[in-house]
Amino acid sequence: MMGETDQDEAKVTLAGAADAFLAKGPLRGRTVLLVHPAWHSCGSHQVFVSQARAYRALGARVLSLAVADAPGANEGSRAHKAYFAATEDLECDARFYTGMSLISVLKPSFLQAVKGWLHGNFAGILVASTELAPIPAALAATARIDLIHCNHFFCMPAALSLRRGGPCPVLLETHDLQARQYALRNEVGWTLPPAAAFEEMLAIEQAAMRTADVLVHLNDEEFRIFQKMLPDQRHALLYPAVAPIEAPARGTPSGLILVASANHANFLSTVWFLEKVLPAAPEVPVRIIGNIDREIRARAPKLWRQHEALFCGRIDDLDAAYGEAAGVLLPTIEGHGVSIKTIEAMSSGAPLIATPLAFRGMGLDPVEFGNVALALKAEDFAAAMRRACEAPPPQGIVLAHGRSGSDTRKAYERIFAPEAYQEALRALVTPLLPAGP
């Protein structure tokens, strides 16, 4: 572990380096295209936002192509307008959108993919959807693209169609081993038997990955897995940048918050919290923030009726919610890859109550963090919740006015802050580009 003095020196050095990079603009004159799913209100979207900001900070002109994954969500559709309205934080020089038309569902390639989808082959239908999504004319007419940074394997058909003649490296950011996620979804969801095998979906994922020049991985577990699976590919470990939560104290913090977006792992974790943890700490005030409310309402209606009052949905001022809370809950029992919401919570400096799985893939030992209470069992998690809300706070719990110096905030600044990400990204991409703009 670095000592406090070493950490402070590293921060000063990093800040000075970042200023130097901005002044020189190492990517000035370059055009970078980000290709990504048309998703919002999730951890992946925050990664896309961070990519755009980092490339622009390094001097590049940044274009974005959002690829919808549903038939009929094509350019000019209601889905297109809704997506743009929900993603104003994606700061690019020009933004484009595409998706397959509704009539394209009749094409033989898509009908074949639908047969697989009925058996749970999500990998196949996502690739088929992207292959049928036309490139917007204005983007196709772009004179020069120097680098393509693609997110998720199923967006690679769009990325490759925009690769110009000559050197135009394509990076593929993998965002976890997706076949594993699809196999998990098939274990609890409806499919026609037999369910698509993990190996079948993995083969589709790997085929797309082999077309990239560099595979970029968000966490150390993913990095090791793909290195072993695809030893002939070039791999890079690039922890994501997450915008910090700036949560100034507003009086005495009270109550606990749980922040979660609507994905399957968060659904399972929230159900575990409501069914196993909360009954052991019914007196503790809790707010559940984020669009996980729609998943609970749709898939666990009984739990929704019992706990509807706890759910706040999406809120405008998330920083304030962190600042007003006595602690943040991370009851993670499922999931792979780095958890964006964990990094976000770390940046707030607030006391955290978490399962060990919340810190997966980070190369960190949360036992060493003074503002983290780890609990694997439901009863231990509930006990930590009760302690966090005691008055006065027990010794060792970081108060709001001291959160900027907490252990998790220091780790965030060292690894996941935008400045750290910019330097790592610069070191990765500049050797890939030919000399001169």
Automatic annotation (TrEMBL):
Keywords of this entry: Transferase
Pfam family, one: Glyco_trans_1_4
Domain of life the protein comes from: Bacteria
Any one of the GO BP annotations: lipopolysaccharide biosynthetic process
GO molecular function: glycosyltransferase activity
PANTHER family per the UniProt record, alphabetical: GLYCOSYLTRANSFERASE WBBK-RELATED
Protein name (database record): Glycosyltransferase involved in cell wall bisynthesis
Source organism per UniProt: Methylocapsa palsarum
